């Protein structure tokens, strides 16, 4: 599909899962005298991610490797920027970096916390996440992004494969934001990437498509697209031709979520995130989080169980518990139980 875009290049694609056994020159090698590479985990756009053992701590880690390439200067610079951005982060919903540097063969590595969990959309599909749980997940992503923006970084590539959902024990899940490979530092004025479009086709903001200077509101747009995807089960803009999807981000009418089962205000909130003009979106992530929290406070048919408010449930950890199954059984049991639940909401 790259050929569909005449003058720009969309340079990021969803990675594919790697087979456990694969011939690979780094497997069973030790990087930087410390990280013993065990097996490939996933392919990124230009890099490959491996599971490795950190010999200094005897723990499993993830290593993102960029092999040496004759034309690799620009890519190494990008990896260095990723490492620099990660070094600024310190947040439970953002992957923790461990070490980075140039390898003996001239390639580049970033070692980081290994996250054991699926990408966001797979998690939602496999767990049949309901709107309330989706909003709790969104709040965790927002929390990670708020930190990112406060540290002077725009992520610019928010998409499902860059958001992993890790289980913590049996009852909690924690979102982890990864892949700071195309970040923009807010204190720099030049665009990295020249005439390339940096971003991913389904979630890229209109201003990124136009190749304009972007700020944190580009991430708010992408988050809106992800929220739409989480609620509707599909992306807002569809075409088999990549250039058409890009053009829809710029000029198509914003589709509204029209599912009556969705909580009141959700459709408007998502549409506001997806506004074409950044000044029509939320000003910052905090405003968006306030909007999401307000939606959680108003009971609607979308919430099948008494929910935890943001006070009782920190946005960094989502509870998945027996209540959830009970909620579904309550739905199946019919109107009486729902009415009782509604009464509970009114009384509390
Ligand atoms: N720390 C990590 N723990 C577990 N899996 C990871 C980790 N980092 C990356 N991955 C996996 O590798 C894929 C590619 O990594 P990513 O950083 O997104 O590379 P790229 O910049 O090339 O897209 C991710 O989508 C994810 O599946
Ligand atoms: Mg990625």
Describe the 3D structure:
By secondary structure, this protein is of the alpha+beta class. It has two domains: 10-113, 2-Layer Sandwich (Phosphorylase Kinase, domain 1), CATH 3.30.200; 120-312, Orthogonal Bundle (Transferase(Phosphotransferase), domain 1), CATH 1.10.510. Helix content is 34%, strand content 16%. It has ten helices and eleven strands. It has helices at 73-88, 120-127, 131-150, 206-209, 217-232, 242-251, 266-273, 285-297, 322-333, 335-347, and strands at 30-31, 35-43, 48-54, 59-66, 97-102, 108-113, 153-154, 163-168, 172-177, 184-185, 318-319. A six-stranded antiparallel beta sheet has the order 1-2-3-4-6-5, covered by helices on one side. It is globular. The termini are far apart. Residues 15, 41-42, 44-47, 49, 62, 64, 95, 112-115, 161-162, 178-179, 181 line the site of adenosine-5'-diphosphate (ADP).
Question: Could you name the key traits of this structure?
Answer:
348 residues, alpha+beta, Phosphorylase Kinase, domain 1, Transferase(Phosphotransferase), domain 1, 2 domains, six-stranded antiparallel sheet, three-stranded antiparallel sheet, 10 helices, 11 strands, disordered N terminus, disordered C terminus, binds adenosine-5'-diphosphate, binds magnesium ion
In short:
The protein has 348 residues and is of the alpha+beta class. The protein contains 10 helices and 11 strands. The termini are far apart.
């Amino acid at each position: 599909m790259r050929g569909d875009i005449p003058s720009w290049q969309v340079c990021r694609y969803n990675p594919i899962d790697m087979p456990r056994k694969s011939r690979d020159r780094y497997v069973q090698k030790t990087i930087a005298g410390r990280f013993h590479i065990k097996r490939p985990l996933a392919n990124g756009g230009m890099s490959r991610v491996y599971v490795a053992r950190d010999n200094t701590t005897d723990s499993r880690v993830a290593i993102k490797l960029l092999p040496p390439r004759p034309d690799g200067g620009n890519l190494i610079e990008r990896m260095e920027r990723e490492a620099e951005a990660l070094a600024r982060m310190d947040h439970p919903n953002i992957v923790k970096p461990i070490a980075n540097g140039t390898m003996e063969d001239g390639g580049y590595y970033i070692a980081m916390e290994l996250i054991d969990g699926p990408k966001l959309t797979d998690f939602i599909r496999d767990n049949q996440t309901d709107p309330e749980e989706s909003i709790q997940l969104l709040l965790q992503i927002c929390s990670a992004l708020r930190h990112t923006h406060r540290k002077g970084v725009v992520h610019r590539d928010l998409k499902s494969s860059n958001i992993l959902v890790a289980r913590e024990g049996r009852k909690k899940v924690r979102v982890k934001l990864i892949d700071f490979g195309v970040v923009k530092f807010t204190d720099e004025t030049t665009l990295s990437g020249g005439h390339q479009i940096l971003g991913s086709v389904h979630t890229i903001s209109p201003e990124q498509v136009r190749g304009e200077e972007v700020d944190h509101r580009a991430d708010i747009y992408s988050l809106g697209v992800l929220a739409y995807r989480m609620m509707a089960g599909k992306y807002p803009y569809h075409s088999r031709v990549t250039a058409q999807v890009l053009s829809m981000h710029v000029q198509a009418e914003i589709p509204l979520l029209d599912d009556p089962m969705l909580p009141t205000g959700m459709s408007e909130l998502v549409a506001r995130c997806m506004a074409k003009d950044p000044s029509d979106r939320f000003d910052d992530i905090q405003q968006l989080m306030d909007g999401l929290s307000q939606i959680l406070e108003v009971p609607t048919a979308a919430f099948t169980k008494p929910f935890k408010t943001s006070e009782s449930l920190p946005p960094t950890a989502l509870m998945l518990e027996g209540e959830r199954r009970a909620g579904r059984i309550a739905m199946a049991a019919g109107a009486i139980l729902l009415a009782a639940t509604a009464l509970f909401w009114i009384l509390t």
